[in-house]
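Retro notes (design track)

What went well: tokenization of the new backbones is finally stable.
What didn't: we kept losing track of which sequence belonged to which structure.
Fix going forward: every design gets posted as structure first, then sequence, in one message. First example under the new rule, 234 residues:
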């Protein structure tokens, strides 16, 4: 489904990604681990088109997306949930969902209803401003904004950051169900090793803008849950 080949990117003249190559199959969940500053968020921003690639290829369903703007990548079937959620705090939950789906040629009402069936907790919050939600509810709204676009691949950046355990459990159940029902693939940047271990089939370890190692999620250990990735780097 997604194929990344020798991808380079960065901020202005500051290079961050240095020739990254990997793939994600349809319905596959792939986790990305690494210390802060290794390029994980830069990778997701480059895949969705917020940052330009300076070299390399990003192919989705065999089409090279490198020159496409973000909204065209969304139309191709890729959605992005940024770190910090990225919702509109002054808009209601319903308005946030309407805004997310407005640019797509589809049935807005039906798309929102389908997402509310997936995330029923949001039904009673539709008239509430996004900024009035709890942190966990905001994260569910951010995920719903991505899902309402009908993606085949979701890019998730630190979804459990600052979230209460009950919402984390709900997200695990939701994402696992979506994989089973819709075949959605997920590329997941996350520091919560247990979250990655529960959902992912494979894990990519990033180090200084490169993929240092790829391994099965079953190899993740309790020591890594404390941020100790040293054993994986060798």
């Amino acid at each position: 489904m997604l194929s990344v080949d020798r991808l380079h990117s960065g901020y202005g003249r500051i290079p961050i990604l240095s020739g990254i190559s990997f793939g994600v199959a349809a319905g596959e969940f792939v986790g990305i681990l690494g210390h802060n500053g290794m390029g994980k968020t830069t990778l997701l921003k480059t895949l969705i088109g917020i940052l330009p690639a300076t070299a390399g290829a990003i192919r989705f369903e065999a089409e090279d997306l490198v020159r496409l703007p973000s909204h065209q990548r969304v139309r191709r079937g890729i959605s992005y949930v940024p770190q910090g959620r990225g919702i509109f705090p002054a808009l209601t939950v319903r308005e946030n969902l309407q805004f997310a789906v407005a640019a797509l040629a589809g049935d807005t009402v039906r798309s929102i209803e389908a997402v509310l069936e997936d995330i029923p907790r949001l039904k009673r919050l539709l008239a509430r401003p996004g900024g009035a939600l709890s942190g966990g509810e905001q994260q569910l709204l951010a995920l719903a904004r991505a899902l309402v676009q009908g993606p085949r691949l979701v890019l998730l950046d630190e979804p459990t950051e600052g979230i209460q355990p009950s919402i984390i459990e709900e997200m695990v159940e939701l994402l696992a169900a979506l994989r089973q029902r819709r075949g959605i693939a997920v590329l997941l940047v996350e520091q919560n090793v247990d979250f990655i271990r529960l959902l992912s089939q494979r894990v990519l370890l990033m180090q200084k803008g490169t993929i240092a190692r790829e391994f099965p999620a079953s190899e993740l250990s309790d020591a890594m849950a404390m941020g100790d990735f040293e054993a994986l780097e060798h």
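Added context from the reviewer: The mean pLDDT is 92.
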